[in-house]
């Protein structure tokens, strides 16, 4: 059942992987397993290793496996479902069990993205969850501009259709926070609407972990007591579904502001926003936010449509350099960290940037990462400057910020270079 999926994972070159998928476009079994692993709308919520009992029965079919994955996707996980999943996997052939287990836990690494699969298929075979992303600030901002506070949390899309509210991460993974869903219903009323915003926690560093636990194990009572959903954009459900929002930024912003007039829903608020007419004023308001401990400003073109991709119509001005890296290994600690993880060995997506990140790791995190090394996870790192060395590039004064559960790939060197604040230190 899983032979071709394993072969794909062992191919090293991206173009070779795409060609392999092209060559197997007629293999329904291979494509089904590929979709189950990569579909961003499928979250099976089982992350830890399961104990799979011995079983002489090896009659598991692809249909049964697929149906069970869909059951996990819709259900809140519990021990009964874990046991049922382990029993199901025990009915697979031994050479299939590891990969099928890796599909359910989303831990089996293919080294290929949904975009590459769709390129190979010549169609959107695996759905992608596309939202508008801000570009690094350049000198081509059109004034007046709408300056909004740059938030530091987890990007969340709230879709209210009929009475139901569904929360998604930027990658299309479902979140279950009843208090936030209730707040969206209170704000939107009878309308069907899509809200775009950021989920934050009263303790800034806890939001990512709270969302991660929610996606792994479902809703835990009280986990949304300290969450706040800050909204900065809106559109109709149809516009989001068809990726064709034809309303300009200024009108979307005004519509959103009107929704908050006379309404005081709990756990939801409107982003801080103002019209700025000059570069000097924009820099000034950004510095005010940064001095107050915020990340900076997003400048938005009032006449721009919502683009379902990265766009210069939204530009971000940040205080420091920040990047997302992939954890590829761990380094042993010294002193009080002897016998534990001392640093996370990290790389950019293509491996040009390599750096060990130890600063910013609390004693609690050290214990967590020692017990379960976060290999192939993604972390946000703040740093001073990019520096060139004999092996490529590294980061000066890197500091761990958080684990990014909303990321599926690291930043590339080209992206880091394009967004860099200050002068990169190249070797002479």
Features:
single chain, 428 residues, alpha+beta, Dna Ligase, domain 1, D-amino Acid Aminotransferase, Chain A, domain 1, 5-stranded mixed sheet, 14 helices, globular
Instruction: Report the portion of residues in β strands.
Output: 25-35%
Helix content: 25-40%
Number of separate helices: 14
Enumerate the strands of the largest sheet in spatial order, edge to edge or round the barrel: 5-4-3-6-7-8
What is the gyration radius calculated from CA atoms? Answer: 23 Å
Structural class comes to alpha+beta
Low-confidence stretches: none
* Total number of beta strands: 18
Q: Kindly, what is the distance between the CA atoms of the first and last residues, rounded to a whole number of angstroms?
A: 53 Å
Q: What gross morphology would you assign?
A: globular
How many structural units, i.e. domains? 4
Largest sheet: 6 strands, mixed
Q: Mean pLDDT, as a whole number? A: 91
Topology (SSEs and partners):
Layout: H1 3-10, H2 14-23, H3 28-38, H4 62-74, H5 79-90, H6 94-104, H7 114-121, E1 133-136, E2 145-150, E3 154-161, E4 164-169, E5 174-175, H8 178-188, E6 193-201, H9 207-217, E7 227-235, H10 237-242, H11 249-259, E8 268-270, E9 273-276, H12 279-291, E10 296-300, E11 310-318, E12 321-332, E13 341-347, E14 354-357, H13 363-371, E15 378-383, E16 385-389, E17 392-396, E18 399-403, H14 413-419
Parallel strand pairs: 1-11, 7-8
Antiparallel strand pairs: 2-9, 2-10, 3-4, 3-6, 4-5, 6-7, 10-11, 12-13, 12-15, 13-14, 15-18, 16-17
